[in-house]
Design brief:
With 166 residues, this protein is α+β, with helices and mostly antiparallel strands. Helices cover 38% and strands 26% of the residues. It has 2 domains: 57 residues; 90 residues, Pleckstrin-homology domain (PH domain)/Phosphotyrosine-binding domain (PTB) (PH-domain like).
Length: 166
Amino acid sequence: MENLYYNLSEEEFSKGRKILLWGFAALFFFAGLYILVASLVLGQKSIPAILSIAPFGISLVVFIIAGIATFKGTDLFFSIDKEKIEYKFGMIKPVTHSFSWIDIKELVMPSKQKKVKLVFKDGTSFVINLNWIQRKKSSYIRKHIYHMAREKDLNVKKVLNLSKIS
């Protein structure tokens, strides 16, 4: 079976989505400023200054999300080859995981979830969560893991949900 390599940092957030996030953050920030100016500077008593907390809070959250989307690491990937499964993924602090095929005893693949549970020969297990990857890519990754496990003569269990067998 051929090797699989996905560069996950390409299509996480498109430029249009990043622009929309920054625009919404700026919009809520200016709305909070308007409320403060209308209440304190212009002296409109019908608008209390405390109302500016909500737009400032929303703008802070959206600024954080936009910053993470814009300035995050660009070396996110998912790779499956004949020796190992290796991936680096995460929004805030990406971590590299590498699993050798000879250490894996069996796979558990739920049909209703985008996850794969690896059970190792030493009795430990690890769940690869593919929920944050695009649907098409995650299904290709799951299929490739399944076929590579069959090629390696590993036991593959198919279940409906992962929580029922944990």
